[in-house]
User: What shape does this take?
Amino acid sequence: MTLHCNHETSIPVQTIEIARSAFPNGNIYMTLREELGVVFRDEQFQSLYPQRGQPAEAPWRLALITLMQFREGLTDRQAADAVRSRIDWKYVLGLELNDPGFHYSVLCEFRSRLIEAGAEQTLFNTILELCRERGFLTERGKQRTDSTYIIGAVRTMNRIEVAGEALFHALDLLAQIDPIWLKAQIPSEWFERYRQRPTSFHLPKSEKGKLELALQIGEDGQNLLSKIYTDSAPEYLRKLPVIDTMRRIWIQNYYQEEDTIEWREEKDCPPASLRVVSPYDIEVRSSTHGDAFWRGYKVHFTETCDEQTPHLITHVETTLATEQDTTTLPRIHSALERKKLLPIRHFVDAGYPSAELLATSQSRFGIDLYGPVRPDLTWQTQTGQGFTMSQFSIDWDHEKVICPMGRISIQWLHEYGIRGKPFIQARFRKQDCLACSSRAHCTRSASTPRHITLQPTREQQLALQAARERQT
Assistant: This one.
């Protein structure tokens, strides 16, 4: 198909008259056309089509149909039927009432062209720019971000099935690419053993039987990999993604003891953030959130939330299901900066804020980050009966802390937590604490002095303290 950028975009007079009589008060699609015009232009999609071939359907229409289709949750067939039969759709698309429409497969083809060309953001960014021009969207307003999960388009499989499916998939692809080489490498019984996909229905019932099957798959898979990674095997086989995926799955689920392949116990497998759970989508991860468990991805939506303007999505960030929200927020802010859509105030839930982000969001992007932070869990704060952090004076320049009784700390130590997170610990002299008349308000220990734990920088400590005060 080739694209000719000369399609008519005006609305036929008969379509206008019939639509206005059918919808005297208008409807959402008629309002869309009257307020925003045709939205897209054919020239935006010109690089998606070759220079020669049969004429293509107008891409600006297909782009608009894609959005309307998503809004109503229609299949491609239903969306194509709506183009042929619905007056409001003909109005917004500028079509004659007797326009025959197109085959529903055109929509799938259009989406494929967008994805293959890496142009899937074109629709979203065009709408954002149009909303900016109309004053619906401005920089330095209020925005909020939250995440939800996406179910991966893969079957739920246990570890044995993942290994079996990886071997099955590799054999199936090799049989298509180089059947002569494959037939010369594998035993004849493999054709019977791996002619069907492994499923839970075929798994042995006993644990012993499951282990024997896992070891059989492991031995066969290791045999295949060893033949592929020999110098005599065609080099292109080692570059196949399916082979690299299979190799990763074998490393994660098996280990070699001398010349014997062994099945890893669950505790010896890599964490969920690294583990491949499907050979067909190696980025799918298993994750939990509260009572929810899923295998797939996580998506973060950012939208405006000013009272005077419509609430519009400004950014969508898709991540691995196991990635922490805290690590995602800097990328969201950087993306909004590139779009010139940074907020002045950004609302998030408890998964996003950290002392570091509270500080850097303000210093780097000029954003006040609003969200629940971890409370001070010291007994002094919880009971309200002792000397809290706020009653200590911190001299960052001289790396000293002064307690409410005027004693000065003697140590300022840069430490690291269990997960490598840095912090500062200020410690007081033991003799000063033991002889203090207010000791009961400071520490419950009979033998050790008081110590104060701080964030690694002054900016982070002040940002966390301000967030806690605001939260209270």
